[in-house]
Amino acid sequence: MAMLRSTLMSLAVLAMLINLAMGANYTVGGANGWDTSTDLQTWASSQSFLVGDNLIFQYSPNHDVLEVSKSDYDSCQASNPIQSYSGGTTNIPLSSQGKRYFICGTSGHCSQGMKVQIDTLATSAPPPESPSSKPPTSSVTPLVPTPAPESRSSSPAQTPKSTPRVPSPAPSATSAKPPSSSAHKGGFLVNITMGIIFVMTMLRAY
């Protein structure tokens, strides 16, 4: 079972590689095909043909396909073709880089515009790897900390200043409470008593 799965996976990978290796198929002239009513040069200039691609010519029985040289292409000369094709459908592989020239061999058709120049480019190579980018060098110069100046030993140490004491305000005279009336009366009675005792003492002396 494991061997079967491995075989199926290998076939799937192989099919993918074959699909990638196969070139694109181009129907010459697009929807109208190989015909006098098609602007074949405009169609060809809008395509990018690579080695491995295929040209597919589709045409009616009154047309054919001739591959010719550059001079015969320019002069629409069909008497000395490199290759000639007929049958309504022709598949031509683009197996090498360079320019190839095709015309219709039916009299008068080439001069009516039934001709095409195909410029085949080399297979596109993967873009070269860009060199590993180095991190940008910082143009900012790092600041070196400046050492703090040494304190002089001869300078006297600063003593903390003593905070002067604020004297508490003396009690105001108006804030003193007057003697109560009972104390005042007691002093008055004492004075009267002392006066009576003094008078009686004097009377006994006489």
From TrEMBL:
<keyword id="KW-0813">Transport</keyword>
<feature type="compositionally biased region" description="Polar residues">
    <location>
        <begin position="151"/>
        <end position="161"/>
    </location>
</feature>
<dbReference type="GO" id="GO:0009055">
    <property type="term" value="F:electron transfer activity"/>
</dbReference>
<keyword id="KW-0732">Signal</keyword>
<keyword id="KW-0812">Transmembrane</keyword>
<protein>
    <recommendedName>
        <fullName>Phytocyanin domain-containing protein</fullName>
    </recommendedName>
</protein>
<keyword id="KW-0325">Glycoprotein</keyword>
<dbReference type="InterPro" id="IPR008972">
    <property type="entry name" value="Cupredoxin"/>
</dbReference>
<feature type="domain" description="Phytocyanin">
    <location>
        <begin position="24"/>
        <end position="122"/>
    </location>
</feature>
<feature type="signal peptide">
    <location>
        <begin position="1"/>
        <end position="23"/>
    </location>
</feature>
<feature type="compositionally biased region" description="Low complexity">
    <location>
        <begin position="171"/>
        <end position="183"/>
    </location>
</feature>
<keyword id="KW-0472">Membrane</keyword>
<keyword id="KW-0186">Copper</keyword>
<dbReference type="GO" id="GO:0005886">
    <property type="term" value="C:plasma membrane"/>
</dbReference>
<dbReference type="InterPro" id="IPR003245">
    <property type="entry name" value="Phytocyanin_dom"/>
</dbReference>
<feature type="transmembrane region" description="Helical">
    <location>
        <begin position="186"/>
        <end position="203"/>
    </location>
</feature>
<keyword id="KW-1133">Transmembrane helix</keyword>
<dbReference type="InterPro" id="IPR039391">
    <property type="entry name" value="Phytocyanin-like"/>
</dbReference>
<keyword id="KW-0479">Metal-binding</keyword>
<dbReference type="GO" id="GO:0046872">
    <property type="term" value="F:metal ion binding"/>
</dbReference>
<keyword id="KW-0249">Electron transport</keyword>
<dbReference type="Pfam" id="PF02298">
    <property type="entry name" value="Cu_bind_like"/>
</dbReference>
<feature type="compositionally biased region" description="Pro residues">
    <location>
        <begin position="125"/>
        <end position="134"/>
    </location>
</feature>
<feature type="region of interest" description="Disordered">
    <location>
        <begin position="122"/>
        <end position="185"/>
    </location>
</feature>
